[in-house]
């Protein structure tokens, strides 16, 4: 029986496994949308340890970090180990007009959800316009000349 030997196939598989795992461990896919007067951000953190999730805001930079630790099993011989481990990190620069002190975060089923409200001063508002005779004119007081 003849077998085809490709010396680069195994090397390619190893390089792909190493570089894919490194890249995947540092990425955090996200969705962002606006719903009414809130922005909602969903970040995938599969298998992240809930106690390691850290969300912070400094100036206008939102930083999200989480850790996924490797499973350690005594007496186990790994055949394939493709699930990434390590630190996930993502930093976003937030625009003006957001209530950064009111951000809420929840972590459910491997998804971190942030709700970022729009600041009151940034919300659209209606300005009443007075018409004609009903408009009050500002009082002008004449000052006496000395």
TrEMBL record:
Gene3D superfamilies: 2.60.40.790. Residues 127-146 are annotated as: Disordered. It comes from the Bacteria. CDD domains: ACD_sHsps-like. Residues 21-132 form the SHSP domain. Belongs to the small heat shock protein (HSP20) family. This is 18 kDa antigen. The lineage of its organism: Bacteria, Bacillati, Actinomycetota, Actinomycetes, Micrococcales.
């Amino acid at each position: 029986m003849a077998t085809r030997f490709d010396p680069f196939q195994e090397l390619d598989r190893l390089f792909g496994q190493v570089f894919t795992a490194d890249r995947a461990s540092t990425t955090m896919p996200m969705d962002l949308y606006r719903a009414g007067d809130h922005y909602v951000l969903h970040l995938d953190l599969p298998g992240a340890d809930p106690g390691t999730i850290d969300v912070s805001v400094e100036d206008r930079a939102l930083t999200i970090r989480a850790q996924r630790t490797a499973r350690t099993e005594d007496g186990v011989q790994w055949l394939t180990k493709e699930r990434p481990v390590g630190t996930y990190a993502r930093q976003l620069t937030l625009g003006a007009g957001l209530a950064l002190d009111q951000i809420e975060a929840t972590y459910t089923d491997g998804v971190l959800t942030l709700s970022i409200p729009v600041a009151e001063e940034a919300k659209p508002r209606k300005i009443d316009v007075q018409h004609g005779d009903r408009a009050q004119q500002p009082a002008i007081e004449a000052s006496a000349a000395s």
